[in-house]
């Protein structure tokens, strides 16, 4: 019975942890792009994003990561044999990378707060894809275990995820270019009006 309790709360932890890992880099995109705004909008937006990032990281992401790991420890203590399985070794390797990503987010938060971050909104859009890819891999490993399918279906799913990520990036680029063009045009109009 304990095993089911651990598994249930392992899943609850995962959902909350990944909600944060998907949303925090999105906030980084807005935070980095706030630098392009004129004052006082720039300072107001930056301090607001800083508060949102800090709360999301400390109140949701970190406790959820700890819950996921604590429940996982419960699972492997109840069924120690899973630790001998190759799928579990692959899963643990992915989890180490995800925990590294989680901590790297904290570093980026500090850099953004101190105005020392070199990454642009576009960099953060790519950075945002990392947890998505690992989320899919880890869930596939947890469900299929040692029978991870490698047939056409899998490659179809991989192609779909990659195309989706590329489409998001291209859409964001199109919107950014349209915004820049509109800004140049309105500058031109203002220049004509004043001359
Ligand atoms: C901290 C490292 C982790 C360990 C040691 C671990 C271990 C385990 C174990 C032993 C199970 C039960 C397997 C079964 O009963 O079939 C499980 C289930 C599961 N884990 Fe993890 N896990 C970890 C992290 C994660 C993460 C980060 C994710 C998601 C990205 C994840 C997704 C899942 C899913 C979806 C299940 C349910 C699988 C099923 O019932 O078929 N795990 N985990």
From TrEMBL:
Entry annotated with the keyword Zinc-finger: no
Top EC group: oxidoreductase
EC number: 1.3.99.-
Requisite cofactors: heme b
Binding-site list for heme: 10, 91
Catalyses which reaction(s): protoporphyrinogen IX + 3 A = protoporphyrin IX + 3 AH2
Ranges annotated as spanning the membrane: 6-24, 56-76, 88-105, 126-146, 152-172
Protein function: Catalyzes the oxidation of protoporphyrinogen IX to protoporphyrin IX.
Protein name: Protoporphyrinogen IX oxidase
Gene name in the database record: hemJ
